[in-house]
Amino acid sequence: MVTKSNRAGEPRPPARKRLWTGLSVGAVVLLALGVVGAFLLGRGRADQSPQASPQASPKAGGHGWFPHGVVPEPGPPDRDREAVIAALRALDACALLDLDYAKSHRNPNAVTIPTGPHSCSLVADANWSPGYSRLSLAVGADNDFEGRFSEKPIALGGAKAYEIDQGDDSLPDCVLDLPVSYTLSIELKTDASAGCQLVEDYGAATVAKLADPDARGVDTAKRPLSAWDGCAFLTSLYGPDLDGYRLTPNSRSSDPFSGCESSNERGKTGPSLKVTYDKWAPKRTDQLIRIAGKDAAVRGGAGTCTVSWHQGGSSSPNEWFGSVIFELADADCVTAERHAAEAVELAERAPEGSASRPQRPLLYGPDDNDTGRIGACADLFNSPCAPYQGGVTVAPTFEAAAADSQADQAVQCEAFSEAVKSAYGSSFSPVIWGTHCMFVEPTHDMLVYVDIDGKNVPADYGTDPSLWADRQVKPIDGKQSVTFWDTRRSEYDVYYSPYGDISRPGNLHIHLAADHPRGVRGTSTATLEPARAELAERVITLVDRKYFR
């Protein structure tokens, strides 16, 4: 959900993506930064006060967003990308689906149908057509930390996997990812009514098959374009014109690894490629032409032009996947058509052999680090992040502690750690991001953000009725405080005056933000349980009593 605004100077997290669905374009769900902590769950709003709070605006200088002594340690490096790509390119997607199990336990007529050079579907029979359910597997799906953050981690057959139920009773949609690097996975998904149980059953079988990847090799002579991956193809096609562009599998395709998308560090989109097995069916509005002897269709848009063409037969046994279809998009039609003609010729050649040995083992163990994040930072959407290691002393007066927390944000973590765990459970762990201390937990259904702020006036917060609701000025443990909800009842704040005077600068602050738990697609705003909100007052009380009275 996009926020109404974001504070100047706040780093903005990347978009949280939704995985592709069937052959359609996946929807993208953006996370944007908002006020005090809620930005980490994509639930933030505009400033709570008329004056931007220094605790919500990381100070300049120091190590990135870390202004003082805390320097995040780099996580372990990712696997060698070329080795991972070499391993994926050699796999037969259909060989990773357990057809024997399907025939013996579910449907004796079941078949596997290649749906692209690196994708396959398990269907009820060879006459499958759109509208009937299927189980699909794609080798080399784009699945990075952003995607895994919203997926539920599970152990499957001794390997790490991630799962998310994106459907509902009327439209099942379950996705399971088996990570093979920090950014790539082998992905199973289904629209069958059995949903996540089905992908788990077949996912476990896929894990077992990948214990010996060499036995699951693809016959490139029988699977057109399977010798290539999409980004190798696009690189060969464009050469140095792609220097400075980041290349990723095409997330808008049912066979992402056979396609490729490009973008540079400024966010400019470059050429993109899709290669799938499909029916050749140009749209009525397309301009039909011939390119290098192939039937082609051209459609232009604002700043982009897409050329698609029928490269030839796919050898798939099903008519709906009987043709190799290319789609190349570029900034203008002249450039797109020129490169399309070159691509027709390139597709008939084999790629250069990889100098890298295939990644072994290919899958991660249940406890392996597959994101590069350290410790509890795996449960914080933003980066860079540092887990709080303990050992910090909290000064015995509020004024000294507030001054110390401006110099060392770990002071906030130490002061609140015992109280937060007492109220919400030991699964909450403190982490540091910028000048902030947050408490995160593995299900991601609630974020806790805390402050020891010596400068801002509690009375200034929560005054805009278009953003905040149920604002109260009330005593908490005998001290005047301000509490309020956001209008969606997903966030709750307490600004507690250690002096008992909300017009005086200085406050202890706790912010709670609810989100849907991992593994479930949220179709509406998550709501925060009132009982959890009430516990925030207990947290504040415990901190004040322990350190400042």
UniProtKB/TrEMBL annotation:
Keywords: Membrane, Transmembrane, Transmembrane helix. Residues 251-262 have a biased composition (Polar residues). Residues 46-79, 251-273 are annotated as: Disordered. The keyword Transmembrane applies. The chain crosses the membrane at residues 20-41. It comes from the Bacteria. This is Uncharacterized protein. It comes from Amycolatopsis taiwanensis. The lineage of its organism: Bacteria, Bacillati, Actinomycetota, Actinomycetes, Pseudonocardiales.
